[in-house]
Design brief:
Layout (H helix, E strand, L loop, with lengths): L5 E7 L7 E5 L5 E5 L4 E9 L3 E6 L4 E6 L8 E4 L4 E6 L5 E6 L2 E6 L5 E5 L6 E6 L5 E6 L4 E5 H5 L11 E3 L6 E6 L7 E6 L3 E6 L5 E6 L4 E6 L5 E6 L4 E5 L8 E3 L8 E3 L6 E6 L5 E6 L3 E6 L4 E7 L4 E8 L30 H4 L17 H13 L4 H4 L3 H33 L3
Parallel strand pairs: 19-23
Antiparallel strand pairs: 1-2, 1-29, 2-3, 4-5, 5-6, 6-7, 8-9, 9-10, 10-11, 12-13, 13-14, 14-15, 16-17, 17-18, 18-19, 20-21, 21-22, 22-24, 25-26, 26-27, 27-28
Length: 431
């Protein structure tokens, strides 16, 4: 089975030739271009593999293209204000937009506005979903990064407004970029800021794992798929590669080039606005305000290709090409509805236009479903309580149960050792 084709989706602020374009990653061949307007930074997103959405720079609407119909602007989603950042959930169910200091959450299937989140104090700068669509992270000019559970946002408690799961306050200047790794709610999240630092967080606990201090403001950040390296784009055009597997990594460090993997990519002449790594972790894509996109070989730190655009690069990222991107006769499975600008559209006389039905359960009749993290925390607490006397009582019952558990631990340790020895033999066996 052939590997999926990887493509580069990019946009610049001039839009003299197109709003956004699609290039083949390895050859640089221009495959598709989408015309009409220009997209603002961190606001170009793919929806369900069928639509490309881009927030119009300085305007209060979002441009929508069917992914295989490159020359025709299909729809404009009118918003309550200027959209500063935009993202769609990987499962295609939700669309998020940052408008001033508020996060607007739409349901894609109905177009209903489900929630308006107002926990930031200044304008939003970036929004990112986890790969399983269970959480999203928002960053703003107020230097805050907030972690939200989508379940809590779209199914709020009637007696309270949705609250973020974590509030990260360690940055001292505006957040410029956020990257969310793999593993859903167990992912690690990287944040970049004008305070000249990049930070690595654990999503499940909210703990700060690592802080790296640089000599310049950091404008973009990403991780390679295996999370061996953290890449940070600086305001001076430098790209910093930070090794996360070094034996000498401490929680707070100042970036220095060394022979353990921390290096600098030099080539851009202005701030680096976008970073993305290929699926195999060998290629790094960077976009800059010097009006170029560069493709780098990570191991050698050499530039493979330079693509010149007509204006400062606002968006550039690598994705696997959707199946219907190059099929001109294909059509989206479901057309996009009209998106509401108000909560409770029936109260704003928009309910009749949506063509759907909204069911609302009475308070107290909603079935509370535990999130993955809540289940994991509950299981952990039960595991911790196994040896508690309050569970098994005093005396002989406790001793018997403890003895059984000790025997089980010994058995599991032996199985683990056997598996380790077996895998070591396989890996070290001469080919």
């Amino acid at each position: 089975m052939a590997a999926p084709m990887e493509v580069v989706v990019c946009a610049d602020s001039a839009s003299q030739l197109w709003n956004c374009a699609v290039f083949e990653l390895h050859s640089g061949t221009n495959l598709l271009s989408y015309r009409g307007g220009n997209s603002s930074p961190r606001s170009l997103t793919l929806l369900n593999g069928e639509f490309i959405l881009g927030a119009q720079l300085g305007k209060n609407f979002i441009n929508v293209w069917e992914i295989q119909r490159k020359d025709q602007l299909q729809q404009k989603i009118v918003c309550p204000g200027i959209v500063t950042c935009l993202t769609a959930s990987p499962n295609g169910l939700y669309l998020l937009a940052g408008i001033a200091e508020a996060i607007y959450v739409w349901e894609v299937s109905s177009g209903n506005l489900l929630a308006i989140l107002t926990r930031h104090y200044q304008d939003l700068t970036c929004l990112r979903f986890t790969d399983d669509s269970s959480h999203f992270i928002s960053g703003g000019k107020d230097s805050l990064a907030l972690v939200w559970s989508i379940t809590n946002v779209v199914q709020p408690d009637p007696s309270a407004s949705p609250e973020p799961r974590h509030v990260w306050t360690s940055h001292s200047l505006p957040i410029t970029d956020i990257h969310c790794g793999l593993m859903g709610p167990q992912a690690r999240v990287a944040t970049a800021s004008l305070d000249q630092t990049a930070k690595l967080w654990e999503l499940s606990s909210g703990e700060l794992l690592l802080t790296i201090l640089f000599d310049v403001g950091i404008m973009s950040v990403t991780l390679d798929p295996c999370e061996y390296f953290l890449f940070c784009g600086g305001s001076d055009g430098s790209i910093f590669q930070v090794s996360l597997c070094s034996m000498h990594v401490s929680r707070d460090k100042t970036f220095q080039s060394d022979n353990e993997g921390s290096q600098v990519f030099k080539g851009h002449r202005n701030l680096v606005t976008s970073l993305s790594v290929s699926m195999d972790g060998t290629l790094l894509l960077s976009g800059s305000h010097d009006e170029t996109i560069r493709l780098w070989d990570i191991q050698s730190k050499q530039t493979i290709r330079i693509s010149s655009l007509k204006g400062p690069v606002t968006n550039a990222f690598i994705i696997p090409a959707p199946a219907n991107m190059f099929l001109p006769d294909s059509r989206p499975g479901v057309a996009l509805p009209r998106f509401s600008r108000h909560l409770n559209p029936s109260e704003q006389a928009e309910g009749s236009e949506s063509g759907g039905m909204c069911l609302r359960l009475q308070p107290g009749s909603q079935v509370s479903e535990e999130t993955y993290l809540e289940k994991a925390e509950k299981l952990y607490s039960l595991m911790c309580a196994v040896t508690d006397k309050s569970v098994f009582g005093d005396g002989e019952n406790t001793k018997v149960r403890v003895s059984e558990l000790e025997e089980e631990v010994k058995t599991l340790k032996k199985i683990n050792k056997d598996l380790y020895d077996f895998s070591t033999q396989l890996l070290t066996k001469p080919s």
